[in-house]
Design goal:
The complex is a heterodimer of chains A (182) and B (321).
Chain A: H1 2-26, E1 30-35, E2 48-53, E3 65-67, E4 76-89, H2 92-97, H3 99-102, E5 108-122, E6 125-140, H4 149-170, H5 172-180
Parallel strand pairs in A: 2-3, 2-4
Antiparallel strand pairs in A: 1-6, 4-5, 5-6
Chain B: H1 2-20, E1 38-44, E2 55-59, E3 62-67, E4 71-77, E5 80-87, E6 91-98, E7 103-111, E8 118-124, H2 126-132, E9 137-138, E10 160-163, E11 181-185, E12 193-196, E13 200-208, H3 211-227, H4 232-235, E14 239-249, E15 257-269, E16 272-284, H5 290-320
Parallel strand pairs in B: 1-7, 4-9, 10-13, 11-14
Antiparallel strand pairs in B: 1-4, 2-3, 2-5, 5-6, 7-8, 12-13, 14-15, 15-16
Helix pairs in contact in B: 3-5
Chain lengths: 182, 321
């Protein structure tokens, strides 16, 4: 009987440990979902020429968009991005007394959605629009905060930049034709 | 034993009250925000758990204010990306892309840590921020103005003024360049100082003309030269020069001073981007005079000019294709 109980205790401890490990490992990681999924069409080796309108950090502007003074004055490539933050946390009073948090279970999470949008305009009206969205989520624990929101934002902006660039390149001929039409 | 417990309780209460007493008047909407700035409210709701922990909030690594529970402060941000950060045993940071005339709310909270609470900073929607901040009290002494800190006069000696003639560095164009050039000072901290052993400050250093004006003149002249043989269309493409570092220092040992100038800037035109640098050192065994500092500054500016000239020609040729 004693031997059985010892085996049962050992089995239970191993099962609990195996179950906890993924939760603890996931506690500090950031999950990322990028849409649309371009399924292999990720080449960014092209350029579209027009009048580029963008007011943010130039690092986040897709490099495929090239300012060209010789294009028609109303052929505009307008790029913009926005970030939406969200999150929740376990109340601080609960964090202090809950032993699971002392074992490294998540104490809260932050979400960040980065949206990149490119409008191809003629005569002031959008003729074609490309949108990319990076949705990210990170958890924090008592032992680690994980990636900072600054790093997540940067990662998201680079992902949507490259995704938009890939969308434009997959559609390059049509987009440039819109910009070059008299 | 009972007396000890009583004393400990009184001390604890005093500590908690002292933490709360650091905040000033009740929230009032900020007025007098310059038209060319964004308004940023940084606040933290009152709470018992972690309420005794306050943390220093920095904007682009420059200390702005401590943020106790139930406190708020106002920051007039220069447009562009600004990283707000705080650190105890863990670091938190959030970045906003500030636009002049707009209002942003950054909410601070505290989470459980191993030895001390972890600070959290997050951007919240304006309606949420406006609703929550009304219960907070102003933290006195916050550095509201988000301008890049000018090099402060330090040490017992008068600031040294170093005159630099552009003709010593580049060949000046015959007329005004009139090209679309925008030079942006992105230095997080301005370090222009004469120091001695142990980095003890002796005085500030001022370049005449100012360092950003020197960069503008150098890049403008080179852009003029590089764009001259290219089609007119290329000459209208705007060039942005972001100055990340321009530092003049005089680190010292027991034997000598090394007057040093470091420059780092990023040039962007069209889809092209290059980082250019300048570095100059002049050693002296006597005293870092204006002449010694000038030799190092001119050497760094010459290297910067040579690198930016090559980068501009390469970038404009790419844009012209």
């Amino acid at each position: 009987m004693r031997r059985f109980l010892r085996h049962l205790a050992s089995f239970t401890a191993r099962t609990v440990a195996a179950g906890m490990l993924p939760i603890l490992l996931a506690a500090c990681s950031t999950t990322v979902h990028l849409a649309p999924d371009l399924a292999g069409a990720t080449s960014t080796d092209c350029k579209v020429f027009g009048h580029v309108t963008y007011s943010g950090n130039s690092e986040y502007l897709p490099a495929v968009l090239v300012e060209a003074a010789d294009r028609p004055a109303d052929a505009v490539l307008r790029y913009d991005h926005e970030e939406h933050y969200g999150g929740s946390s376990v109340p601080a009073g609960v964090q202090v007394v809950n032993p699971l948090h002392l074992a490294g279970f998540p104490t809260g999470e932050n979400t960040l959605s980065v949206i990149g949008r490119l409008d191809v305009l003629r005569a002031g009206a959008p003729v074609r629009t490309y949108i990319a969205v990076a949705s990210m989520k990170r958890s924090q624990s008592m032992f680690s905060e994980g990636e900072t929101l600054t790093d997540m934002r940067r990662r998201g902006l680079l992902l949507v930049r490259d995704n938009i660039a890939a969308q434009v390149c997959a559609d390059h001929a049509a987009t440039q034709a819109i910009l070059d039409a008299p | 034993m009972r007396n000890l417990l009583r004393t400990a309780t009184v001390l604890l209460v005093l500590l908690l009250v002292a933490a709360c007493a650091t905040t000033g008047p009740q929230f009032e909407a900020a007025t007098g925000v310059p038209a060319d700035r964004a308004l940023v409210y940084v606040y933290r709701e009152a709470g018992f758990v972690g309420g005794g922990v306050s943390y220093m909030v920095r904007a682009n690594d420059v200390e702005v204010s401590t943020l106790p529970a139930g406190g708020y402060f106002v920051y007039h941000a220069v447009p562009g990306e600004i990283e707000f950060s705080a650190k105890t045993e863990a670091r938190t940071s959030v970045t906003i892309d500030a636009e002049a005339g707009k209002t942003y709310y950054i909410k601070g909270t505290i989470g459980v840590g191993v030895f001390v609470g972890h600070p959290h900073l997050a951007v919240v929607p304006n309606d949420v921020g406006a609703r929550e901040i009304v219960e907070c009290k102003l933290v006195p002494g916050a550095k509201t103005d988000g301008t890049v800190e000018p090099a402060a006069s330090k040490g017992p000696f008068k600031d040294v003024v170093v005159g630099v003639a552009l003709a010593e560095i580049i060949e000046l164009p015959p007329g005004p360049a009139n090209l679309p050039l925008n030079v942006v000072d992105q230095r997080k901290k301005v370090v222009m100082e004469r120091s001695t052993i142990g980095h003890t400050a002796m005085s500030g250093v001022r370049l005449e003309p100012g360092e950003i004006d020197l960069i503008r003149s150098i890049v403008g002249a080179q852009m003029h030269a590089a764009a001259a043989p290219l089609p007119d269309a290329v000459r209208t493409v705007p060039l942005v020069c972001e100055v990340a570092e321009f530092a003049v220092t005089t680190p010292a040992t027991m034997m000598y001073w090394d007057a040093t100038t470091d420059i780092i800037a990023t040039l962007r035109v069209g889809d092209q981007q290059r980082t250019v640098k300048g570095h100059g050192v002049q050693r002296t065994y006597a005293w870092p005079t204006d002449e010694v500092i000038k030799v190092a500054a001119v050497a760094a500016l010459k290297q910067f000019a040579a690198e930016s000239d090559a980068a501009l020609r390469e970038m404009l040729a790419q844009v012209a294709r």
